Amino acid sequence: MNSLYASLGTTVFEVMSRLAAEKGAVNLGQGFPEDDGPRDILEAAARATLEGPNQYPSMRGLPELRQAVAAHYRAYQNVDLDWQREITITSGATEAIAAALLAFIEPGDEVVLFEPLYDAYLPMVKRAGGVPRIVRLQPPHWRFERETVAAAFNEKTRVVIINTPLNPSASVTSRAELEMLAELCRAHNAICVSDEVWEHLLFDGAEHVSMLEVMRDHTLKIGSAGKMFSLTGWKVGFACGAPELMDNFAKAHQFLTFTTPPNLQRAVTYALGKPRAYFEEMCSTLQRSRDRLVSALEGEGFVTLPARGAYFVSIDLAASGIAMSDEAFARHAVDHGVATIPFSAFYAAPDAPALVRLCFAKSDDTLDRGAEALINARRSLL
Ligand code: GLN
Fold first, then answer.
1. Mean pLDDT of 219-240
2. How far is the CA of 186 from the centre of ligand 1 (A)?
3. Residue to mutate (ligand 1; options 32, 97, 169, 234; most atoms within 8 A of CB)
4. Closest ligand 1 atom to the C-alpha of 13?
5. What are the angstrom distances between the C-alpha of 4 and each of 8, 119, 123, 126?
6. Quick check: 276 and 135 in contact, CB under 8 A?
7. d(Cα 240, Cα 348) in Å, to the nearest integer?
8. Are strands 355-359 and 312-316 parallel, antiparallel or unpaired?
9. Model's pTM, two decimal places?
């Protein structure tokens, strides 16, 4: 057996969702919307399935979808992409990250990562032969400080993985921070793999800047239809970048999944035609949900961190008067009827900050029941 996988557990998202189901707990853990995606997009998928074709689409993705992705990013992010040479449709962003690492690094190459980091990154970097160099961002603002970031780069650095908005901290990387990262990438001839799956989920006027706009030639940007259209199970991702990167990327993709279901690709093509109002409405609904959850919790003595992007907010356990590790509290909370995600799942070292992440892409009723369970879980400790 491969020793890396032999030493890994099951991903925390699966574990917490399973526990929530077993215990009948409200699931504020794994990040997925409670609503099952817009009806018209589901109907487009149903039609596309019945009308076909359902055979292999082009390896890099349906031309109409690649054109729609190019048009979307031109309209929203000031980026001009050549749909034939600079876009590949993947089976989710996770596949795109794996393909990028397989395509861009050789064993022994260094990869700069930032903690907190999405749980898939580190195992994939190591499996691809990369040597991780981890920089820790600090709460509550999770900023990229030039000095600490620069110290992680050296002549072996080949790839830097960033995620903005950042899961789980819900922080948004500023243009100035991206420019600083870009300068370091250029100086070291490193590629930035920019995981931007939460690009459309922004609150309080936060603005998403794509790394592709800042560093056009050295960035492989990753987007996700699942996050844009509240259809996380569809696993349709967009990899975008210069032909020099994309050609090798596509060679990794062709032997990972080869293609992505054509019916879903056609439905996502339709979805990308939605007006700006669709995205604005999604953000304002989510912002209301965030505020509802946060005010229920803060009214009862919880302290939460700022949440400007994605659909997560975190509880600062120590500041909330809970002297417990994040994992211990997550276990305690699920016994009281609510699943959360402990931040330590996003850290390589065992000294993660004592924070738990909550997903607020839920109905008011679910949020209220989740808040109540958290309040009871906290009270039982005081
Ligand atoms: N991205 C989702 C989250 O952060 C989980 C995805 C998964 O379960 N693999 O909760």
1. 98
2. 31
3. 32
4. 8
5. 7, 14, 7, 8
6. no
7. 28
8. antiparallel
9. 0.97
- Please give the Cα distance from 221 to 128 (Å, whole number): 19
Residue whose token pair is 């190019």: 70
> Which pLDDT score is estimated for 165?
98
Q: How, if at all, do strands 237-241 and 219-224 pair?
A: antiparallel
Residue 30 Cβ < 6 Å to ligand 1: yes
Using CA atoms, how far apart are residues 134 and 243, in angstroms rounded to an integer? 28
Q: How much distance in Å is there from the Cα of 167 to the middle of ligand 1?
A: 9
Q: Is 116 a pocket residue for ligand 1 (Cβ < 6 Å)?
A: no
Q: Distance (Å, rounded) from C-alpha 176 to C-alpha 192?
A: 16
30 CA → ligand 1 middle, Å: 6
Average pLDDT over residues 363-375: 98
Q: Which atom of ligand 1 is nearest to the CA of 14?
A: 8
Beta strands in 196-254 (DSSP E): 219-224, 237-241
E-assigned strands of the chain? 26-27, 87-90, 110-115, 131-136, 157-163, 191-195, 219-224, 237-241, 312-316, 338-339, 341-342, 355-359
DSSP string of 135-152, one letter each residue: EE--TTT----HHHHHHT
Q: Which residue has the CA at smallest separation from atom 7 of ligand 1?
A: 13
DSSP designation for 338:
E
Angle between helix 326-335 and helix 12-23 axes, rounded to 10 deg: 30
Is any ligand 1 atom within 6 A of the Cβ of residue 263?
no
pLDDT of residue 92: 98
pLDDT in tens, 188-208: 999 999 999 999 999 999 999
Q: Is 204 left (phi over 0), alpha (psi -120 to 50) or beta?
A: left
CATH number of the domain at 3-30+277-379, please? 3.90.1150.10
Report the alpha-carbon distance of residue 336 to residue 376 in Å, rounded. Answer: 7
pLDDT of residue 126: 98
> Is-cis flag, bond preceding 53, omega within 30?
yes
Average pLDDT, the chain: 97
Cα separation of 34 and 360, whole Å? 9
39-271 placed in CATH 3.10.25.10: no
Give residue limits of the domains in the chain: 3-30+277-379, 39-271
Q: Are 319 and 236 in contact (CB under 8 A)?
A: no
